[in-house]
Specification:
The chain has 248 residues and is of the alpha/beta class. The chain has helices at 23-35, 57-64, 67-72, 85-93, 108-116, 141-158, 180-191, 214-226, 236-247; strands at residues 2-8, 40-44, 78-82, 98-101, 121-124, 165-168, 205-207, 230-233. An eight-stranded parallel beta sheet has the order 6-5-4-3-2-1-8-7. α7 packs parallel to α8 (214-226). The two termini are 13 Å apart.
Length: 248
């Protein structure tokens, strides 16, 4: 699995270890992630959780403006994690090489940015317009995922970009106030049925569980067993250890 290690330039990420708000801190974090088994870096400047303050796109970009070119010097793939086309375009102009589309590519503006750059597009499922405005999935999540990606890939076809897309079931996001037990069951259902997404004949990308609980470890093992092509990870050494144990 190709692993993207997480660097957060926003100060309010739930994972404190991932926060790096200066180029020097971001480089140090990225170098440690790569040493621990990551292959690339996923960089974001706007938190998507309930505790994150939403800032204007200009402020989001200010957090990233010096960090993107610094990370680009590492010579590994750098994905920009944003739901704003203004930020995404600037990051790609300054050295990012992958779009991690936190809006689920639900606007033509993001597709227009993607059409300007010959880069992969991580396309996550969302049950709302962005991660901050998610609703509960009331139907079988597998049905919801297939319906969503069928629609988004129809958009991709309009721009001639289906071949660049990577499918993300969006399990790194969840509606606000969704109790963990519900989230756990939802994620277990999705992770145990990733093969249903192979109908699109595109690579899979999973935001890997990182918290230290038995249930999170169970979910991580299910994902690793499914062998998706890509993962987003906070602790790559742990994931590599799971891979060695499961796959040898």
């Amino acid at each position: 699995m190709f692993l993207y290690g997480v660097v957060n330039a926003s100060p309010d990420s739930l994972n404190i270890d991932s926060i790096a708000t200066t180029p020097e801190a971001a480089l140090a974090r990225a170098q440690q992630l790569l040493a621990d088994g990551a292959d690339g870096i996923d960089l974001g400047g706007q938190g998507s959780t309930d505790n994150a303050t939403v800032v204007p796109w200009e402020a989001e970009w200010r957090r990233l403006a010096d960090i993107v070119p610094a990370l680009a010097t590492l010579g590994v793939p750098i994905s920009i994690d944003s739901w704003r086309p203004e930020v995404t375009r600037r990051a790609l102009e300054h050295g990012a090489t992958v779009i991690n589309a936190a809006d689920g590519m639900q606007s033509d503006a993001m597709w227009e940015v993607a059409a300007e750059f010959d880069v992969p597009i991580v396309l996550p499922f969302l049950s709302g317009p962005n991660p901050r405005e998610m609703s509960h999935v009331e139907v079988d999540p597998i049905d919801a995922l297939v319906e969503f990606f069928t629609a988004r890939l129809a958009d991709a076809d309009r721009f001639g970009l289906r071949h660049r897309c990577v499918i993300d079931p969006g399990t790194g996001f969840a509606p606000s106030n969704w109790p963990w037990e519900e989230r756990y069951l939802y994620q277990k259902r999705v992770y145990s049925n990733l093969d249903a997404l192979r109908v699109f004949e595109l690579p899979l990308y999973i935001a890997l569980p990182w918290k230290e609980t038995a249930q999170h470890d169970e979910l991580l093992e299910i994902v690793v067993t499914q062998q998706p092509e890509f993962g987003r990870v906070h602790y790559p050494a742990k994931v590599r250890a799971f891979e060695r144990r499961i796959h040898g």
